[in-house]
Amino acid sequence: MMSDDTTHLRLTVELMQKRKLLKNAEKVTIDGSCLNLAQVVECSNSTNIKLEISEQAVDEMALNAKYLKRKITEEKLVIYGINTGFGNSADTRTLELEKLQKALIQHINAGMGRTFPPDMVRAVMVTRANCLAKAYSGVRPDVVQLLVAMINNDIVPIVPLRGSVSASGDLMPLGYIAAAMIGREDINVMVRGQIMPCPVALKEANLEPLVMGPKEGLAIINATSFAAGTAAQTIYEANIAVLLTQICTGLAVEALQGKMESFHPVHHACLQHVGLKEVSNNMLKILDGSRLAVSTLEMHLPDTYGSLKQDRYSIRTAPQWLGPVIETLKEACRRINVELNCANDNPVIDHRTDTIAHGGNFQGETLSITLDQTRQALQVCGKLLLAQLQEIVNHRINHDLPPNLCGSDVNLDFGFKGADTAMASYMSELDHLANPMSNHVLSAECQNQSVNSMALVSSRLTREALEILQMMLANHLCLLCQALDLRYLRNEVISSMRKMGKRQKEFLATFLKENKWYDFLFHPEESAAKFAEKIPKNGHKEEDIRNEICVAMKSLMSDACNGHLGTVDCLGTGTKKAYWYIRHTVGVPFYHGQAAIDTWLEKILSAVQNGDFENVLLSAFEEP
């Protein structure tokens, strides 16, 4: 468990480092208490990692199952779900204990329609195996051993996407995992990418279908593990997305030549929210050394009439805006970690204290609210990205960058106008998804499940919200690299003009008010001729001035198109890592109207979604 003073950054970095180590690991041991988010994510994505159960957990499960058997056979106890019916049918009784478990699985297999992707189901199987290994569920070691063997042989049940209310656990989706474990003939599974009948898959792997003993079917399905397992994946990636949002904010500050004083310690000294303080510190860290962000306090700068005295909200209030987000995500990690390592079926069987207790640990309200809050946090990130993008792409307020961040003739190159429109679409959908799921509750199962958490639906919606935020991040990162190169080009063009103008500052200032700097890049011949004609010659030939300008501008434009600009040298210690990665590793070039940008957006999106950015983030946020 993390201490109270652990920052969100430190927590996320630790998770990324754990996952990095797992990529070379051969096995993960489960014992009911030590499973973490990184392990669930990597085990769900990689079939190379093998799961094993600790010897102590095997021994405890054997003792637990033996204790339950004694209570049933010797003491003749009537225990819910073992010799009674289920839910509102708990008033029935039977001595056919094995048939009862089979009937449970049979009646709950009522799904249809779209199905979960295999990696999500693997995450659930890992989570459920770990929870059962805690030895409070009355199951024999054989149950968990078969589940682990299926994971290790990449036998993944096909599970319907819908049908769970997450109240008595995720009964229906977990029921398909249970059905596969008993080898139901009409159940299909995915094996190394191929769909086949479950009995065939088990036979090929030399695995025997399970004959469910007392409570074992109920123990598998009567739990929050589907919501928890899928949530583990989403929460892990949401943490990465929040760090990327901070990187984007740093790049946006530089693209807009924003002021570092927005992150000054005096702000969080006055408003002592831990999230605000952390985001401010993160921004100062990643922008350290930047030559584009303004590090001098505004109070020490000369005033310029007609210019804003402070930055707009999209960068100035980023710490106050993102502070609650990282506090929410930090708490979400804590809650999900608890759910990954719990006994959450019913009744709880404790041989240690001679206790059998009927209760409701399967009620997933904690998960539902956690995922609702996470989804809202993702929406908050999206809103900030949209505001930044719309400010940067708008030439009326982006501090002298070209319209739509085009990189060639403004009459024919409309740059990122389409990306701007798409961003609004993504945001509208993300706004809709931010609505909570936990307050949409209907009574189910003959009024027995009268309150339902809907946690799995909330988990699914949060996954959709994450996907949209990742698209927004990819869009924004692509646009930011373009904006930064244009900012560098602007500064270089004006610097070149000043060198040519030398002592003629008044002329140059007037000329640049009437003529756009980017016209020199995009139309060097025409602009150079205009400049050479009007500038006082002071003994210089007009032709020489024109040629000098053309050579300088064409050289700059060539450097931009060939990826040889010195933009990276102007950036902060953290932001330069992201810029370099996109430009030189992902291979996204400077945009100058030569092609559609969709291919580049797909490349960045793939890097965001596949975890390729994790090493960049580890490097960007590393301690100096």
UniProtKB/TrEMBL annotation:
One of the GO BP terms on file: L-phenylalanine catabolic process
Domain of life: Eukaryota
This protein's GO CC annotations: cytoplasm
InterPro entries noted in UniProt: Aromatic_Lyase, Fumarase/histidase_N, L-Aspartase-like, Phe_NH3-lyase
Molecular functions (GO terms): ammonia-lyase activity
UniProt KW keywords: Lyase
Coiled coil regions in record: none
Record-stated family: Belongs to the PAL/histidase family.
The protein's name in its UniProt record: Phenylalanine ammonia-lyase 2
UniProt organism field: Lingula anatina (Brachiopod)
Name of the gene: LOC106161379
